[in-house]
Amino acid sequence: MLRRSFFSRLAVLGTFAFAVLAAGPACKKSGGSSGALKIAVIPKGTTHEFWKAVHAGAVKAGKELNAEIAWNGPLKEDDLKGQIDIVQNFTTQGVSGIVLAPLNDKALQKSVEDATNQKVPVLIFDSDLQGSSHVSFVATDNFAAGKLAGEQMAKLIGDKGNVVVLRYQVGSASTNNREEGFLAAIKAHPGITVVSENQYGGATTESANEKSESLLVAQKADKGEVAGIFCPNESTTFGMLLALRKTGLNGKVKFIGFDSSDKLLEGVGAGDVDALVLQDPFNMGYLAVKNLVSHIQGKSIEKRVDTGSKLLTKTNMGEAEMKELVHPDLKKWLSE
Q: What span, in angstroms and rounded, lies between the C-alpha atoms of 65 and 179?
Protein backbone atom coordinates (compact mmCIF):
# COMPACT_ATOMS: atom_id res chain seq x y z
CA MET A 1 0.00 0.00 0.00
CA LEU A 2 2.79 2.40 0.93
CA ARG A 3 4.74 1.46 -2.19
CA ARG A 4 1.75 2.12 -4.46
CA SER A 5 1.16 5.49 -2.78
CA PHE A 6 4.79 6.44 -3.24
CA PHE A 7 4.76 5.67 -6.98
CA SER A 8 1.43 7.46 -7.38
CA ARG A 9 2.94 10.58 -5.86
CA LEU A 10 5.94 10.29 -8.19
CA ALA A 11 3.62 10.09 -11.18
CA VAL A 12 1.73 13.22 -10.11
CA LEU A 13 4.98 15.13 -9.54
CA GLY A 14 6.30 14.05 -12.93
CA THR A 15 3.14 15.21 -14.68
CA PHE A 16 3.31 18.57 -12.88
CA ALA A 17 7.01 19.03 -13.81
CA PHE A 18 6.27 18.26 -17.47
CA ALA A 19 3.42 20.79 -17.49
CA VAL A 20 5.67 23.50 -16.05
CA LEU A 21 8.40 22.82 -18.62
CA ALA A 22 5.91 22.80 -21.48
CA ALA A 23 4.44 26.10 -20.33
CA GLY A 24 7.83 27.82 -20.13
CA PRO A 25 8.23 28.99 -23.74
CA ALA A 26 4.55 30.00 -23.98
CA CYS A 27 4.88 32.22 -20.91
CA LYS A 28 8.00 33.79 -22.37
CA LYS A 29 6.21 34.55 -25.62
CA SER A 30 3.24 36.10 -23.89
CA GLY A 31 5.54 38.77 -22.51
CA GLY A 32 4.75 38.27 -18.87
CA SER A 33 3.00 36.22 -16.24
CA SER A 34 -0.19 38.26 -16.69
CA GLY A 35 -0.80 36.41 -19.95
CA ALA A 36 -0.77 39.63 -22.01
CA LEU A 37 0.72 39.47 -25.47
CA LYS A 38 4.02 41.26 -26.07
CA ILE A 39 4.19 42.91 -29.48
CA ALA A 40 7.50 44.34 -30.68
CA VAL A 41 7.08 47.37 -32.96
CA ILE A 42 10.17 48.24 -34.98
CA PRO A 43 10.12 51.45 -37.07
CA LYS A 44 12.70 52.57 -39.63
CA GLY A 45 13.84 55.28 -37.26
CA THR A 46 12.75 57.06 -34.11
CA THR A 47 13.41 60.76 -34.69
CA HIS A 48 10.93 61.83 -37.39
CA GLU A 49 7.43 62.96 -36.35
CA PHE A 50 5.95 60.28 -38.59
CA TRP A 51 7.31 57.48 -36.39
CA LYS A 52 6.11 59.15 -33.20
CA ALA A 53 2.57 59.09 -34.61
CA VAL A 54 3.00 55.41 -35.55
CA HIS A 55 4.15 54.73 -31.98
CA ALA A 56 1.09 56.48 -30.53
CA GLY A 57 -1.27 54.46 -32.73
CA ALA A 58 0.45 51.21 -31.74
CA VAL A 59 0.14 52.08 -28.04
CA LYS A 60 -3.56 52.83 -28.46
CA ALA A 61 -4.14 49.41 -30.05
CA GLY A 62 -2.07 47.75 -27.32
CA LYS A 63 -4.19 49.29 -24.57
CA GLU A 64 -7.42 48.26 -26.27
CA LEU A 65 -6.21 44.69 -26.81
CA ASN A 66 -4.35 44.20 -23.50
CA ALA A 67 -1.05 43.80 -25.36
CA GLU A 68 2.29 45.15 -24.20
CA ILE A 69 4.00 47.27 -26.87
CA ALA A 70 7.80 47.04 -26.99
CA TRP A 71 8.96 49.96 -29.17
CA ASN A 72 12.52 49.94 -30.48
CA GLY A 73 14.13 51.09 -33.70
CA PRO A 74 17.36 52.55 -35.05
CA LEU A 75 17.99 56.23 -34.35
CA LYS A 76 18.69 57.00 -38.01
CA GLU A 77 16.97 55.56 -41.05
CA ASP A 78 20.19 54.33 -42.64
CA ASP A 79 21.22 52.00 -39.80
CA LEU A 80 20.35 48.74 -41.53
CA LYS A 81 22.54 46.57 -39.32
CA GLY A 82 21.00 48.14 -36.22
CA GLN A 83 17.49 47.27 -37.39
CA ILE A 84 18.46 43.69 -38.24
CA ASP A 85 19.98 43.30 -34.75
CA ILE A 86 16.76 44.60 -33.14
CA VAL A 87 14.64 42.08 -35.08
CA GLN A 88 16.95 39.25 -34.07
CA ASN A 89 16.97 40.34 -30.42
CA PHE A 90 13.19 40.42 -30.22
CA THR A 91 13.04 37.01 -31.92
CA THR A 92 15.47 35.58 -29.34
CA GLN A 93 13.36 37.06 -26.52
CA GLY A 94 10.40 35.13 -27.87
CA VAL A 95 7.93 38.00 -28.15
CA SER A 96 4.39 37.15 -29.23
CA GLY A 97 4.85 38.89 -32.57
CA ILE A 98 6.75 41.59 -34.44
CA VAL A 99 5.47 44.60 -36.37
CA LEU A 100 8.26 45.82 -38.68
CA ALA A 101 8.84 48.71 -41.10
CA PRO A 102 11.86 47.32 -43.01
CA LEU A 103 14.65 49.71 -44.04
CA ASN A 104 15.37 47.53 -47.05
CA ASP A 105 12.97 45.28 -48.97
CA LYS A 106 15.57 42.50 -49.30
CA ALA A 107 18.00 42.81 -46.38
CA LEU A 108 15.38 42.10 -43.68
CA GLN A 109 13.98 39.06 -45.46
CA LYS A 110 16.16 36.45 -43.72
CA SER A 111 15.54 37.91 -40.25
CA VAL A 112 11.80 37.77 -40.86
CA GLU A 113 12.05 34.18 -42.11
CA ASP A 114 14.06 33.25 -38.99
CA ALA A 115 11.45 34.82 -36.72
CA THR A 116 8.65 32.97 -38.50
CA ASN A 117 10.52 29.67 -38.21
CA GLN A 118 10.77 30.30 -34.46
CA LYS A 119 6.99 30.79 -34.24
CA VAL A 120 7.20 34.59 -33.94
CA PRO A 121 4.78 35.96 -36.58
CA VAL A 122 5.81 39.16 -38.37
CA LEU A 123 3.55 41.82 -39.87
CA ILE A 124 5.17 44.34 -42.22
CA PHE A 125 4.05 47.97 -42.23
CA ASP A 126 4.87 51.22 -44.06
CA SER A 127 7.38 49.72 -46.52
CA ASP A 128 7.03 46.36 -48.27
CA LEU A 129 9.31 43.33 -47.93
CA GLN A 130 10.13 40.70 -50.51
CA GLY A 131 9.18 37.12 -49.77
CA SER A 132 6.07 35.58 -48.23
CA SER A 133 7.06 34.92 -44.62
CA HIS A 134 5.14 37.89 -43.20
CA VAL A 135 1.46 37.54 -42.35
CA SER A 136 0.24 40.88 -43.77
CA PHE A 137 1.29 44.28 -45.11
CA VAL A 138 -0.30 47.42 -43.62
CA ALA A 139 0.63 50.68 -45.34
CA THR A 140 -0.25 53.59 -47.53
CA ASP A 141 -0.77 52.62 -51.16
CA ASN A 142 2.44 54.47 -51.97
CA PHE A 143 2.18 54.21 -55.74
CA ALA A 144 -1.30 55.78 -55.63
CA ALA A 145 -0.04 58.47 -53.24
CA GLY A 146 2.79 59.29 -55.64
CA LYS A 147 0.30 59.56 -58.51
CA LEU A 148 -1.73 61.98 -56.40
CA ALA A 149 1.35 64.20 -56.17
CA GLY A 150 2.03 63.86 -59.90
CA GLU A 151 -1.47 64.92 -60.90
CA GLN A 152 -1.29 67.91 -58.56
CA MET A 153 2.08 68.91 -60.01
CA ALA A 154 0.70 68.80 -63.55
CA LYS A 155 -2.07 71.21 -62.50
CA LEU A 156 0.32 73.55 -60.70
CA ILE A 157 2.70 73.96 -63.66
CA GLY A 158 0.00 74.04 -66.34
CA ASP A 159 0.96 70.75 -67.98
CA LYS A 160 4.33 72.05 -69.20
CA GLY A 161 7.90 72.56 -68.01
CA ASN A 162 10.80 70.68 -66.46
CA VAL A 163 10.37 68.62 -63.30
CA VAL A 164 12.91 67.25 -60.82
CA VAL A 165 12.50 64.26 -58.47
CA LEU A 166 14.86 64.00 -55.50
CA ARG A 167 14.62 60.36 -54.46
CA TYR A 168 15.07 59.14 -50.87
CA GLN A 169 17.25 56.04 -50.50
CA VAL A 170 18.10 52.92 -52.50
CA GLY A 171 16.20 49.84 -51.26
CA SER A 172 13.36 51.74 -49.56
CA ALA A 173 10.27 50.18 -51.12
CA SER A 174 7.77 52.72 -49.82
CA THR A 175 9.53 55.81 -51.16
CA ASN A 176 10.47 54.05 -54.40
CA ASN A 177 6.78 53.34 -55.02
CA ARG A 178 5.93 57.00 -54.36
CA GLU A 179 8.61 58.12 -56.80
CA GLU A 180 7.40 55.68 -59.45
CA GLY A 181 3.77 56.70 -58.92
CA PHE A 182 4.71 60.35 -59.39
CA LEU A 183 6.65 59.58 -62.57
CA ALA A 184 3.79 57.47 -63.95
CA ALA A 185 1.36 60.37 -63.47
CA ILE A 186 3.75 62.84 -65.10
CA LYS A 187 4.20 60.58 -68.16
CA ALA A 188 0.52 61.10 -68.93
CA HIS A 189 1.35 64.78 -69.57
CA PRO A 190 3.62 64.96 -72.66
CA GLY A 191 4.30 68.67 -72.15
CA ILE A 192 6.21 67.93 -68.93
CA THR A 193 9.82 66.71 -69.00
CA VAL A 194 11.50 64.95 -66.07
CA VAL A 195 15.05 66.30 -66.23
CA SER A 196 16.39 64.48 -63.13
CA GLU A 197 15.14 61.35 -61.37
CA ASN A 198 18.32 59.50 -60.38
CA GLN A 199 19.57 61.54 -57.40
CA TYR A 200 19.10 60.38 -53.78
CA GLY A 201 18.83 62.66 -50.76
CA GLY A 202 19.69 60.00 -48.18
CA ALA A 203 18.33 59.36 -44.71
CA THR A 204 18.93 62.73 -43.04
CA THR A 205 17.88 66.33 -43.58
CA GLU A 206 21.56 67.28 -43.81
CA SER A 207 22.36 64.86 -46.63
CA ALA A 208 19.12 65.79 -48.44
CA ASN A 209 19.90 69.50 -48.14
CA GLU A 210 23.38 69.02 -49.55
CA LYS A 211 22.06 66.99 -52.48
CA SER A 212 19.23 69.50 -53.05
CA GLU A 213 21.62 72.42 -53.36
CA SER A 214 23.81 70.64 -55.91
CA LEU A 215 20.74 69.45 -57.83
CA LEU A 216 19.33 72.97 -58.12
CA VAL A 217 22.67 74.20 -59.45
CA ALA A 218 23.03 71.29 -61.91
CA GLN A 219 19.54 71.86 -63.32
CA LYS A 220 19.95 75.65 -63.51
CA ALA A 221 16.92 76.26 -61.34
CA ASP A 222 18.06 79.85 -60.75
CA LYS A 223 17.79 80.43 -64.53
CA GLY A 224 14.16 79.33 -64.54
CA GLU A 225 14.93 75.89 -65.97
CA VAL A 226 12.94 73.99 -63.30
CA ALA A 227 9.15 74.36 -63.02
CA GLY A 228 8.47 71.78 -60.30
CA ILE A 229 10.12 69.55 -57.69
CA PHE A 230 8.86 66.41 -55.90
CA CYS A 231 10.35 64.86 -52.75
CA PRO A 232 9.05 61.53 -51.36
CA ASN A 233 9.45 61.79 -47.56
CA GLU A 234 9.84 64.19 -44.63
CA SER A 235 13.64 64.50 -44.59
CA THR A 236 14.06 65.03 -48.35
CA THR A 237 11.20 67.53 -48.36
CA PHE A 238 12.70 69.62 -45.56
CA GLY A 239 16.21 69.41 -47.03
CA MET A 240 14.88 70.72 -50.35
CA LEU A 241 12.83 73.44 -48.64
CA LEU A 242 15.98 74.75 -46.95
CA ALA A 243 17.83 74.72 -50.28
CA LEU A 244 15.04 76.59 -52.06
CA ARG A 245 15.00 79.24 -49.34
CA LYS A 246 18.77 79.62 -49.40
CA THR A 247 18.77 80.19 -53.16
CA GLY A 248 15.72 82.45 -53.11
CA LEU A 249 13.69 80.03 -55.22
CA ASN A 250 11.04 79.39 -52.56
CA GLY A 251 7.63 80.28 -53.92
CA LYS A 252 9.02 80.51 -57.46
CA VAL A 253 9.42 76.78 -58.17
CA LYS A 254 6.34 74.61 -57.57
CA PHE A 255 7.18 72.19 -54.79
CA ILE A 256 5.33 69.09 -53.55
CA GLY A 257 6.60 67.03 -50.61
CA PHE A 258 5.53 64.02 -48.59
CA ASP A 259 4.61 63.63 -44.89
CA SER A 260 4.45 66.48 -42.41
CA SER A 261 6.23 68.21 -39.55
CA ASP A 262 5.72 71.61 -37.95
CA LYS A 263 8.47 73.05 -40.17
CA LEU A 264 6.89 71.67 -43.34
CA LEU A 265 3.44 72.92 -42.33
CA GLU A 266 4.96 76.35 -41.76
CA GLY A 267 6.33 76.05 -45.30
CA VAL A 268 2.86 75.35 -46.68
CA GLY A 269 1.43 78.31 -44.77
CA ALA A 270 4.18 80.56 -46.11
CA GLY A 271 3.58 79.46 -49.70
CA ASP A 272 7.02 77.82 -50.02
CA VAL A 273 5.55 74.30 -50.19
CA ASP A 274 2.60 73.99 -52.57
CA ALA A 275 1.33 70.64 -51.29
CA LEU A 276 2.16 67.75 -48.97
CA VAL A 277 0.95 64.21 -49.47
CA LEU A 278 -0.16 63.02 -46.05
CA GLN A 279 -0.30 59.47 -44.82
CA ASP A 280 -2.09 58.43 -41.64
CA PRO A 281 0.78 57.13 -39.47
CA PHE A 282 -1.35 56.97 -36.31
CA ASN A 283 -3.86 54.71 -38.06
CA MET A 284 -1.01 52.72 -39.60
CA GLY A 285 0.47 51.89 -36.20
CA TYR A 286 -2.97 51.15 -34.80
CA LEU A 287 -4.05 48.80 -37.61
CA ALA A 288 -0.66 47.06 -37.76
CA VAL A 289 -0.84 46.00 -34.11
CA LYS A 290 -4.56 45.22 -34.29
CA ASN A 291 -4.16 42.95 -37.32
CA LEU A 292 -1.17 41.11 -35.88
CA VAL A 293 -3.02 40.43 -32.62
CA SER A 294 -6.00 39.15 -34.63
CA HIS A 295 -3.66 36.79 -36.49
CA ILE A 296 -2.12 35.53 -33.24
CA GLN A 297 -5.63 34.88 -31.93
CA GLY A 298 -6.36 32.71 -34.96
CA LYS A 299 -8.58 35.20 -36.80
CA SER A 300 -8.46 35.77 -40.55
CA ILE A 301 -6.78 39.02 -41.69
CA GLU A 302 -6.28 40.65 -45.09
CA LYS A 303 -2.92 40.25 -46.80
CA ARG A 304 -2.73 43.95 -47.73
CA VAL A 305 -4.36 46.86 -45.90
CA ASP A 306 -4.33 50.40 -47.38
CA THR A 307 -4.33 53.10 -44.70
CA GLY A 308 -5.00 55.93 -47.20
CA SER A 309 -3.45 59.27 -48.22
CA LYS A 310 -4.59 62.90 -48.56
CA LEU A 311 -3.26 66.03 -50.25
CA LEU A 312 -2.73 69.00 -47.94
CA THR A 313 -2.56 72.52 -49.39
CA LYS A 314 -2.66 76.05 -48.03
CA THR A 315 -6.38 76.10 -48.90
CA ASN A 316 -7.44 73.03 -46.88
CA MET A 317 -4.83 72.92 -44.09
CA GLY A 318 -7.27 74.51 -41.62
CA GLU A 319 -9.89 71.78 -42.06
CA ALA A 320 -10.56 69.47 -39.09
CA GLU A 321 -9.65 66.29 -41.00
CA MET A 322 -6.28 67.70 -42.00
CA LYS A 323 -5.55 69.02 -38.51
CA GLU A 324 -6.16 65.54 -37.09
CA LEU A 325 -3.78 63.97 -39.62
CA VAL A 326 -0.93 66.40 -38.96
CA HIS A 327 -1.39 66.73 -35.21
CA PRO A 328 -2.66 63.49 -33.68
CA ASP A 329 -2.88 63.52 -29.88
CA LEU A 330 0.56 62.07 -29.11
CA LYS A 331 0.59 63.21 -25.47
CA LYS A 332 -2.43 61.07 -24.69
CA TRP A 333 -0.58 57.91 -25.72
CA LEU A 334 3.13 58.69 -25.36
CA SER A 335 3.10 61.13 -22.41
CA GLU A 336 5.11 63.61 -24.49
A: 36
